């Protein structure tokens, strides 16, 4: 491996600016950023040819299925797909088998990732109705955060004991991330749908069963609990216009309550159920086009701070089911992550630095990730070279995720990832995953 890699002729997108320049990497870190750096200072040159270079995406919400559900994906397979999508670090969710609800299970995942991850990694500790002692014992540096399913989804991890919820919000020393949907309200709506349709509920009922009221009841409760306890709360995958009033616009720095939106909720709308069927079934549900547009606006206002994927692979066969009741919820998204987020740039909803802020800077700040998420001298060289005028054309043949399909098949995205560097080492180049062992455990400075 060359010690010093020089990226030349780049448009560097970082911290509000787009500046032409060169960037020198030495031993995995950014050694120098300058208008021009002499080739003689390096061992190898990567000519960016005038393309944009930006910090890689830090995806704060993925489900990589290992251990226990590896027919859908594992940390190796899904992180290979992730680097193809411009992700250089991921934070992985606890609804595996066994679920990550003990400190041993958490460390087991780090051990697996150490030998197989293609991007930098961290894991969440899952909360349950009876592991408050584990939440309290967690070393704040050893997990991305606590995941609380305040609504039931894939896996059996619902936390609905209010005393326990108050305990988590009072005692957690890491960001609390929540899945917010009211399970009792979902059950009531589902019963009504069963009365009306019998077992043949059409998937178009998904956003009716898991509607805006279901989301608001739960997310407003999470926000109230966090305010009461002064807790650090990050509400995951928001989907409705109604919930936007719960969050303050403005920069992420200094906020205790932050919000996330996922790429599929920014792109798909209820109008797509007709053509996509159960393939876009996910929790929370994809809602109306008006909700999608409100999410885009909230992102622009800084009411929503972070763009993530909620990559949730289920196999092509599992998702091909035309039975709404048994089709699993969740979509594979990491392989198109950054190109999907960049659609907002092409739609004039966000500037290019605005996309970078919400995919790299803000997750780094929100989770106190050490030395990543920015193009800064001394920081790790987690970078992507992006071509904004060459489209990504997702197809079944191109899929790297073990689940074997992409919700974007047949739907081109307007940008593509030319190169992804993880700690200065190529992880994706010229349309191919590069084998490497440079991925590292994320460090949390908290
Ligand atoms: O649609 C979803 N799928 N939402 C979740 O919260 C979980 C995820 C999964 O793990 O399949």
UniProtKB/TrEMBL annotation:
Q: Does the keyword NADP apply?
A: no
Q: Locate the Amidohydrolase-related domain: which residues?
A: 53-424
Q: Which Pfam family would be a valid example here?
A: Amidohydro_1
Required co-factor(s) are: Zn(2+)
Any single GO CC term annotated in Swiss-Prot or TrEMBL for this entry: cytoplasm
- The organism's place on the tree of life at top rank: Bacteria
Q: Which SUPFAM superfamilies match?
A: Composite domain of metallo-dependent hydrolases, Metallo-dependent hydrolases
Which Gene Ontology terms cover its molecular function?
Answer: allantoinase activity; dihydroorotase activity; metal ion binding
Q: Which GO terms describe its biological process?
A: purine nucleobase catabolic process
Q: Does the keyword Hydrolase apply?
A: yes
Its keywords, alphabetically, are: Hydrolase, Metal-binding
EC number(s) stated in the UniProt entry for this protein: 3.5.2.3
Name the protein family.
Belongs to the metallo-dependent hydrolases superfamily. DHOase family. Class I DHOase subfamily.
- What the protein does? Catalyzes the reversible cyclization of carbamoyl aspartate to dihydroorotate.
Stored PANTHER family:
ALLANTOINASE
Q: Tell me the protein's name.
A: Dihydroorotase
Q: Which organism is it from?
A: Elongatibacter sediminis
């Amino acid at each position: 491996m060359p010690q010093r890699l020089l990226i030349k002729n780049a448009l560097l997108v970082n911290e509000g600016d787009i500046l032409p320049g060169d960037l020198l990497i030495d031993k995995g870190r950014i050694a120098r950023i300058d208008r021009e750096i002499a080739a003689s200072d390096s061992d190898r040159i990567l000519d960016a040819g005038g393309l944009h270079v930006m910090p890689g995406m830090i995806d704060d919400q993925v489900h990589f299925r290992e251990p226990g559900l590896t027919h859908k994906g594992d940390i190796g397979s899904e992180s290979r797909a992730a680097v193809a999508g411009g992700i250089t670090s991921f934070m992985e969710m606890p609804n595996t088998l066994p679920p990550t609800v003990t400190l041993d299970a958490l460390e087991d995942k780090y051990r697996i990732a150490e030998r197989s991850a293609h991007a930098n990694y961290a894991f969440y500790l899952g909360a349950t109705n009876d592991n408050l002692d584990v939440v309290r014992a967690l070393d704040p540096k050893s997990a991305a955060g606590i995941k609380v399913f305040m609504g039931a989804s894939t896996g059996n991890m619902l936390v609905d004991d209010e005393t326990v919820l108050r305990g988590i919000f009072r005692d957690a020393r890491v960001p609390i991330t929540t899945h917010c949907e009211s399970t009792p309200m979902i059950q009531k709506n589902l019963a009504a749908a069963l009365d009306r349709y019998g077992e043949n509920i059409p998937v178009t009922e998904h956003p009716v069963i898991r509607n805006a009221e279901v989301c608001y009841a739960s997310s407003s409760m999470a926000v109230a609990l966090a305010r009461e306890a002064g807790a650090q709360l990050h509400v995951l995958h928001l989907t409705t216009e109604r919930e936007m009033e719960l969050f303050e616009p403005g920069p992420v720095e200094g906020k205790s309550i932050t919000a996330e939106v996922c790429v599929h909720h920014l792109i798909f709308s209820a109008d797509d159920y007709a053509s996509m069927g159960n393939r876009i079934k996910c929790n929370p549900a994809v809602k109306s086009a008006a909700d999608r547009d409100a999410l885009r606006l909230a992102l622009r206002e800084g009411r929503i701070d972070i763009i993530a994927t909620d990559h949730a692979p289920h196999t092509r066969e599992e998702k091909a089911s035309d039975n709404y009741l048994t089709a699993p919820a969740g979509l594979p998204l990491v392989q198109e992550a950054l190109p999907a987020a960049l659609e907002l740039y092409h739609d004039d909803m966000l500037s290019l630095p605005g996309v970078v802020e919400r995919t790299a800077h803000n997750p780094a700040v929100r989770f106190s990730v050490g030395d990543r998420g920015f193009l800064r001298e001394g920081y790790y060289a987690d970078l992507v070279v992006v071509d904004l005028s060459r489209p990504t054309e997702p197809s079944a043949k191109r899929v790297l995720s073990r689940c074997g399909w992409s919700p974007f098949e047949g739907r081109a995205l307007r940008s593509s990832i030319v190169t992804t560097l993880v700690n200065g080492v190529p992880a994706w180049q010229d349309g191919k995953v590069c084998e490497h062992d440079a991925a590292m455990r994320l460090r949390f400075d908290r």
